[in-house]
Amino acid sequence: MHQALHIFKKDVRYLRREISLVWALAAIFVVNDQWWVDLLLIVAAVYLIARVIHAEAIPGDRQFWVTRPYCWKSLVGAKLLFILVFVNFPMFIDQFLLLVINRFPLLPSLPGLLWSQVLLTLVGSVPAGALAAMTSGIGAFIFSILVLLAVGFGTERGAFPGPGRLFPLLETWPFQVEWVRDSIAAVGLAVIALFVLHVQYKTRRTFFSRIFALSGAVVAAVVYVYMPWPAAFAIQSPSKQHLDPSSVQIVLDPKTAKTHSNLSSAEPVYLDVSITVNDVPKGTDLRADALTVTLKSDGGRTWKSGGQDFIGLSENSNGTEVVFRGRGLMNRSFFDREQEQQVTLDASLYLTIFGNPRANTIPLQSIPVNTLDGLQCFVDVFNQLLCRSAFRWPARIVDSDTGSFGRVVSYSPFPASLHLNPIETRGATSGPPLSARVVTITVREPISHFQRDVEVRGLHLKDLVGPTSYSH
Amino acid sequence: MSGVFCTLDLSKRFGKVNVLDGLNLEVPESSIFGLVGPNGAGKTTTIKVLMNILKPTAGRAEVLGVDSRRLLPADFAQLGYVSENQEMPDWMTVEYFLAYLKPFYPSWDDSRAEELIRQFDLPRRRKLRHLSRGMWMKVSLASSLAYRPRLLVLDEPFSGLDPLVREELIEGLLESAGESTILISSHDLAEIESFASHIGYLDRGRLQFSEEMSSLSARFREIEITVDPPVLVSDEGQWPDHWMRPEATSSVIRFIESRFDPERTMSDVRRLFGEVRHISVTPMPLRAIFVTIARGARTAA
């Protein structure tokens, strides 16, 4: 501990200018949370992390410290202490001050504030430190960052578009369950980074660490890209079962069948599916999160929906019955081959029931007013009703008298998402009347996630195909 | 294995290049051991394995009785390392650098550090990056002598230094010779000769010899024989293999005797040439011995 503090003090002295820069940007961020300040702060923080690690660089055989009596635990302890104090602590202070300035209730925001620090440390600082520990200088570090950014950006944006797209499932996850994939990526990143730090500081086996990190990153990326989203529903379904959904049944709606006879060979083929959900418990709100469809021909050929198919379903509610309608782009060769044949349609509908509604009436004013579940609501200069929350939008359906704040929410159980700016704002679909003095905010929480399957045999494929122009 | 530092069948390979090839070396306690050899002989690699900067490919090295791969901070507290290629925290001043290192070493001696600063005439408040090469080496040496290490390892400490600085460094080293074993690799054979007690000659990753300086100096002689009448020197294959670099004309024969013993050498000369008119036996400086061995090794290769 004594040696760790000794190294820590040396690093503070060495990097006092860089520390001042990070703290100055952190101070600016509190009063001016523009994206560019956010970006500069992140760049400065990452640079500071790299510099402090490189003060006792791991790779190489010429560093003075490797022949001095450094205890590796003290060294890594000193570096982590430095990062916590001069990188993460300013961000903690920033987020705390933003909560205070924006008059969010502090106690309910505390889990989010702390979880945000955990995320910033494990997914931000520690991986940056691990990368620095595998590079010998700032030039190599920046080059590595640029390569990683290029690869990450290319992957995220689907750098390989077209029919033979390398990442067919990327970006196709329903937003509600994206937290599962993000969590797996975050855990993978943190585990790889912590292992690399351990190996580097204990044994300085840089080649091994680089191979491990690269392999780990590839495995994590493959899991991230190719993990099917139905698996995420399976993971999260047990988390919310406050209501028995066994009474809820689904049927393929007869209106699904559509005739369309003028398909040229070049025209895309869309599959329209309408599914009716019956016996929805009274007083609850049913939302369809996603739908998967599989068609099997009598000849044994199969087509499965994928990509963006059947995400963002339209709905038409009628008391205890809800009709969900979706569309998917069908494989043309499958259609051409099987359009005259009978097929079997298997559909799986992923549903969430929202309930336990709570309402709170608040004055309509331009200054945010605290309301339910950590939300603050206010009207802006354009008379739009806005609500905001700290660290993440709550896993709730939020409505006002006059409009909804979005039908799609993340079901993540965690109190914060990975953002420097802790405040997330959403606008209602429509604003309150100008004469209104108060507004009632209603929140409903997810009380059951479940899946329903339906199988229909003997369908003619041609009857299911709709026109090219379509909107939900 | 015994000694302050020893290796057993030590090998180190970089890709397809065998830099150390089954090296067996032992440095006795309290010696000043000069490790010499041509460029690429493996001197620096040997030292880096010893200091656990590099891992051996095969075999092992022991330092202060500990496998070099398992050296702990407590072991490094007894080791000093000075290298011409070492990267130092050049933002530190001389004073701060020494103050920073002090808590790492339980045996750090403030008075010794002060003495070294004065002896080397080090500028306390100057940053390391602003020091001349000679001054930089002196700081490096002072930072390794101030805690009185049991083993001090120096890798090419004199390259590129002016004679005055070399002299100052050697003086500093000699003052510590009583309390530290010193392993020094160098091309500067004249300096090594002036203070090394032992010498090891490394070539292509193999130890050609390792012995006390006095013994080495005693066994190498440059010998010139004049015979009268001239003889026909036709069968050099009959000459002893410890006669190196033989040159012969009809009446003068020159060679380096690498196992000089007055009686035996004279006996060999008489056996091959009969009575000689004149024989001169000249002691050799280390540099000349080194060159002889290096050339002999290349010829053999």
Give a verbal description of the structure.
The complex is a heterodimer of chains A (472) and B (301). Helix content of chain A is 41%, strand content 24%. Chain A is an alpha+beta fold and 472 residues long. The longest helix of chain A has 30 residues, at 72-101. Chain A is globular, with a radius of gyration of 27 Å. Chain B is of the alpha/beta class and 301 residues long. Chain B is built from ten helices and 14 strands. In chain B, a hairpin with a 3-residue loop joins strand 12 (243-248) and strand 13. In chain B, helix 4 packs antiparallel against helix 5 (133-145) and helix 5 packs parallel to helix 6. Chain B is elongated and about 75 Å long. The two termini of chain B are 31 Å apart. The chains are: A alpha+beta (472), B alpha/beta (301). The interface between A and B is medium-sized, with 17 and 24 residues.
List the helices and strands and how they pair.
The complex is a heterodimer of chains A (472) and B (301).
Chain A: H1 2-14, H2 16-31, H3 35-54, H4 72-101, H5 106-133, H6 138-156, H7 178-203, H8 206-226, H9 229-236, E1 249-252, E2 269-278, E3 285-297, E4 302-304, E5 314-318, E6 321-330, H10 332-338, E7 342-363, E8 369-370, E9 375-379, E10 385-390, E11 397-400, E12 423-427, E13 438-460, H11 461-464, E14 465-466
Antiparallel strand pairs in A: 1-2, 2-6, 2-14, 3-4, 3-7, 5-6, 7-13, 8-9, 9-10, 10-12, 11-13
Chain B: E1 5-14, E2 17-27, E3 32-36, H1 43-50, E4 58-63, E5 66-67, H2 73-76, E6 79-83, H3 94-101, H4 110-120, H5 133-145, E7 151-155, H6 163-176, E8 181-185, H7 189-195, E9 198-203, E10 206-212, H8 213-219, E11 221-226, E12 243-248, E13 252-257, H9 262-273, E14 278-283, H10 286-300
Parallel strand pairs in B: 3-8, 3-9, 6-7, 7-8
Antiparallel strand pairs in B: 1-2, 1-4, 4-5, 9-10, 11-13, 11-14, 12-13
Helix pairs in contact in B: 4-5, 5-6
